[in-house]
Amino acid sequence: MSEQMWTWLLFAMELIGVYGSYQVGNKKWYGHMVVALHSFPWFVYSIVFDKPGFLAMWALWQWVHWRNMWKWKTDIANA
């Protein structure tokens, strides 16, 4: 797949990310999971096209989203 096709695939996946962010705004814990999972094509893209900056960005955002999801879930369970 060409790099240009990848850009369109990544754009399409961002639509899923927007949905996840929308759910976070609706105070749904799973919104963080949707946002974290939608970004796995960025991981593949960074490997296929040797873009270590994107890999670092992906890892940082993964940590933030999974941490936030865990925090929201435990806060809801303790409420």
Name some characteristics of this structure.
86% helix; 4 helices; mainly alpha; 79 residues
Verbal overview:
The chain is mainly alpha-helical and 79 residues long. It has four helices and no strands. The chain starts with a helix and ends with a helix.
* Unreliable spans: none
Count of individual beta strands = 0
Domain module count: 1
In N-to-C order, the SSE pattern is: HHHH
Number of distinct helices: 4
End-to-end C-alpha gap: 48 Å
Instruction: Report the C-alpha radius of gyration, rounded.
Output: 14 Å
Estimated helix fraction: over 70%
Overall average pLDDT:
91
Structural class: mainly alpha
The largest sheet is:
none
Beta-strand fraction estimate: under 5%
Anisotropy-based shape: elongated
Secondary structure elements and their pairing?
Elements: H1 3-25, H2 30-38, H3 40-48, H4 52-78
Helix pairs in contact: 1-2, 2-4, 3-4
Summarize the structure.
With about 80 residues, the protein is mainly α. The protein is about 85% helix and about 0% strand.
